[in-house]
Amino acid sequence: MPIQITCSRTSRLFVAAAGLFVTTALMSTPVAAQDISDMDSQDIRSMTPLGSLQATVGTETLEWTILHGEVDGENLASASWQPITMPESPMARMMANMDEEQRRQMEETMGAAGVGVDRQYVRIRITGFDPESGKVQRAGMLSIELGMLATRDMDAVHAQPHQADVSYYRKTDDGVTLLVANTRSAGATTTVDFDRLEVNDGKGSAEGRFSADLCPMRQVVRNTIEPESCITLEGEFTTRLAEQEPVSMTGQ
């Protein structure tokens, strides 16, 4: 059974904090994802790079490494795609009994009316770790998640920006501060643009750009935003993606 790990935007932020998700083998048979929360002792050098993230904050340039490797007997990856299975609709059942030409005409009609038919969705997660830390740890970690991305029309995916959840464990002189998307302020944005996205059975890859207005999570939750505590991250990513076991929308 798939493991349900997304219930709300807040829970997604805490799940993303784990950073690593289980796979049987990179680009191989998918298995269920789970929260990995005790990774601070893992040496980055024992893992294989999947890709990288780069971003700027003002004049500062930051970099992260996206990882894959075996930990405690399990294969983990910090960048993944996950199919989302949808409950069968009456329209889908009706179309299953049509011949090919009737089905094509119905899809064209429904598409022109702005109604999706048998749409395909995936969840994308990309998490990077501070390569200078030497450890797989939350301090310095950046995570990007797109919770429900329609992928039937890949041209449309590449042609427009997508809303995303972004979290960043920023290192400061006082320790580590969790920054999250500032969704309460007018004009604040958190988007991802894909220059390339491929999600096929057992493998995947992604390349693109992102922009995120981030503020301390405590301030966002309490709606007490202090602008001087917030940052804007603008950057790019390129990575391979491991496949996870499908998750059902009926569990959400």
The CA-CA distance between the termini, in Å, is 14 Å
Low-confidence region ranges:
1-18, 24-38, 112-118
Put simply, the count of helices is 5
Largest sheet: 15 strands, mixed
What global shape is seen? Answer: globular
What share of the residues does DSSP label as strand, in percent?
35-45%
Radius of gyration: 19 Å
SSE string:
HEEEEEHHEEHEEEEEHEEE
The number of distinct structural domains comes to 1
Q: What structural class do helix, strand and pairing data support?
A: alpha+beta
Record field, number of beta strands? 15
Mean pLDDT: 78
Share in helix: 10-25%
Oligomer description: single chain
Protein name: DUF3108 domain-containing protein
Organism: Thioalkalivibrio paradoxus ARh 1
Keywords: Signal
In words, what does this structure look like?
This protein has a 15-stranded mixed beta sheet that branches. Residues 1-18, 24-38 and 112-118 have low confidence and may be disordered. It has one domain (9-85, 120-251). The chain has helices at residues 9-16, 90-96, 100-112, 154-159, 217-222, and strands at 21-23, 48-57, 60-71, 74-77, 79-85, 121-128, 142-150, 162-163, 165-172, 175-181, 190-200, 203-216, 231-240, 242-243, 247-248. The chain is an alpha+beta fold and 252 residues long.
